[in-house]
Amino acid sequence: MSTIANRRPLSLAITSTAFVLVWLALAAFPYIWTVWGSFKVEADFFSRETWQNALFGIKTIQQTGEPFTGSGYYGAWIESQFWRSVINTAIVATCVTTISLTLGTLGGYALSRTAYRYKFWILIIALVFRAMPDITLVSGYLLPFFQLNIWGYLPTAIIVLVALNQPFTLWMLYSFFVNIPKELDESALVDGCSRFQAFRLAVMPVMWPGVITTGLFSFLLGYNDFAVTSMLLTQENQTMIPKISSFLFKIQAEGHVMYAVAAVVSATAPLFVLIMFFQRQLVAGLTAGAVKG
Amino acid sequence: MPHRTFLAFILPSIVAMLLFIATPIMSIAVQSLYIEHDKILVMSETCQPLGGCVKETRVDAEATAKIRHDHPLGKFNGFGIYTDHNHLAFADIGKIVTSNLGFNETAARIYDLPFYRALVFTLTYALTVTPLAMCLGFVIALAVNAVPKLLKGPVIFFSLLPMVVTPLIGSLVVYWMINADGILGAAIQLITHNPDLSLKASPTMTWVTLICYGIWTNAPFSFVVFYSGLQTVPSDTLESAMIDGASRLQRVRFVVIPTLLPLAVFVTLVQLMDNFRVLEPIIGFNAAANATSLSYSIFIALNNQSAQLFSSAAATSVLTIAGVLILMTPVLMKTAREFGFRT
I need a surface site. Which of A131, A193, A262, B271 has the fewest CB within 10 A? Predict the structure, then answer.
């Protein structure tokens, strides 16, 4: 497409490049700034006098002798026991991803291979369920969970998150499986496989791109959740996000805002890595739903 | 696939959804019809030899705990909780409307009612953020499509950040920057020479901040979807438009936008659903004094210090779900039509 007719006039090229750069700055700067600032002391990062303090770490040098300090991280991870929430988050996110995918692939595969009408109803009901704000459902969980004495434990939160994630997982995997040719598993059936064997031997080997993409979004759901985990977990079982929100106000009162800044950066860092490695799958996942329209 | 095999495959998924999505919806519907037990009061008379007798009312803690334990739902209240001051507030509205105050005053009074405050902000947020974020996303997609390849990778990488990072963290990151002591907040005060200008200065400022934040987090999704969409715009059509003498703008207007329209419908619906449940930014920006949302009302009712207000949360939840369903009707109709139902 690099014909003369398609060549863009210089002015247009400059405007669009400038616009993209502005957006790039808008999207990236807050995070870069916070990562940088998390290694400073509070007087620098929240400096009333001049932003140059934060850049050169003037107060940080005065207080600690070095331009960078890990005191915020020490305070967050060790003193405020943030490491506990990190472990909890790792457990929750991993379990949510594996269980969601297991249930979702089976369900999505079944939906893609049936021609009966109830398939549409299941998909439409799943769509309605997907639209329910999490917090409205949480208000329905609390009382029964108190009664059953299962409130506050990690497995409870994991099962709830898996369930909340099912509608999305089903839709996404359904649209991936629909694109895997039926002939593949049908020929396995002809060869004498049972349905499950056909699924395991013929479909599973080719389904991984779709599963990985869906898995990424399930992981993000478990990792990022706030509404469910903040209401359903006890203090010591809390995951990162509710932990940050719950110790935010306490910390601010004590004058340790940098602990919260360090905790926020710690929680964002894995996402940086995730995007770096899985950028292509994330984009594919976002568009997969859209193309179906 | 026969019914039995189908059922075997999909059963775990269906059971999970029924147990943890359908059942809680019923549970809040039932809960919203009940109200917490009143405390049981006992009158007792203590007489002292010289001081005479004093009548005293105190809470019978044991009996209160017992009735709460025996009937955890509370006592039946019908639709009482829906119509009380904290929810639909029919009585208050009636009073306000009948007192003939003129439009502005009436609106202001209604806005003072907690439920309507939350509803107005939720709707404003969802209905402004969604289209604006989509426009921004579309323009970014067009611009990225026109820049050298070298730049595209980093742009997509960093664009995904505001979207992938959870709203609570994203809003904290921005909040720290626009804080009066943060870099942006201080800069704005310096430029405008107004040391009082800040996020919390007025409700309008808070609303603008929240909406800008919303656009910032929502734009990447539209951008990514539209950008992939742009790659599928048929080049033949573009070329023929060019031969017919269409300018760049006309090509966008008459070829690109119509091709992307189905995508735009999809994006609108997804984002509308997500923005309607806005909760974390209000917590992150510490903005509850000037802006509350329906989700936030539920969150607060459940986090109440003295006693969790299950019934109030349940009633707000039912009303929120009703709102979601109303917003969703067009989507549902469209999906049903696509699947070949006559609606």
Answer: A193
